[in-house]
């Protein structure tokens, strides 16, 4: 079991490393293409008159700033979307905490019975699955509290 776990972790790390290497290769290729474009633009600008060089330089800078603006807008949209998602999750967790606190104050005797039943179930599950634990999502706060105490 431990060897399999280590092998699985090693495979995960290898896969992550390969993905990272692939991403870096793609980034290098993109940078190489950008460098080639800049070199060609530079060579073209050297062949132009001084006034045309200034205009060409301004066009290049406008293009660069426009692309940078688009990238920043895309990043902003991603961050706003992530913020909304996190706010929804926070509301859900706050509701769960409130429900849990309400259930603890309303029915403490019933909770104690459930705790005893949960402890018995946990012991059985550990024996059957060698450390794995199966539980219902709504029993998670109770399980965590039992584990802490």
Q: How would you describe this protein?
A:
- With 149 residues, the chain is mostly helical.
- It is 89% helix and 0% strand.
- The chain contains four helices and no strands.
- The longest helix is centred in the middle third of the chain and has 57 residues.
- It is elongated.
| DSSP summary: helix tally | 4
Query: Structural class per helix/strand content?
Result: mainly alpha
Quaternary assembly: single chain
Rg, rounded, reads 29 Å
Low-confidence stretches: 120-130
**Total beta strands:** 0
Overall average residue pLDDT: 82
Protein name: MYO5B protein
Coiled coil: 3-103
Organism: Columbina picui (Picui ground-dove)
Keywords: Coiled coil
Reconstruct the topology from this structure.
Elements: H1 2-46, H2 50-106, H3 108-129, H4 140-148
Q: TL;DR of this structure?
A:
The chain is mainly alpha-helical. It has helices spanning 2-46, 50-106, 108-129, 140-148.
Any descriptors?
elongated; mainly alpha; MYO5B protein; coiled coil; 4 helices; 149 residues; 89% helix
């Amino acid at each position: 079991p431990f060897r399999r776990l280590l092998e699985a972790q090693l495979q995960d790390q290898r896969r992550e490393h390969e993905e990272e290497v692939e991403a870096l290769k793609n980034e290098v290729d993109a940078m190489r293409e950008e460098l080639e474009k800049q070199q060609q633009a530079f060579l073209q600008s050297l062949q132009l008159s001084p006034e045309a060089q200034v205009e060409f330089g301004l066009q290049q800078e406008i293009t660069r700033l426009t692309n940078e603006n688009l990238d920043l807008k895309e990043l902003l949209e991603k961050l706003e979307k992530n913020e909304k998602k996190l706010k929804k999750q926070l509301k859900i967790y706050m509701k769960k905490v409130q429900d849990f606190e309400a259930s603890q104050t309303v029915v403490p005797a019933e909770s104690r019975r459930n705790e005893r039943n949960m402890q018995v179930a946990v012991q059985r599950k550990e024996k059957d699955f060698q450390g794995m634990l199966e539980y219902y999502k709504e029993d998670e706060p109770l399980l965590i509290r039992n584990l802490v105490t």
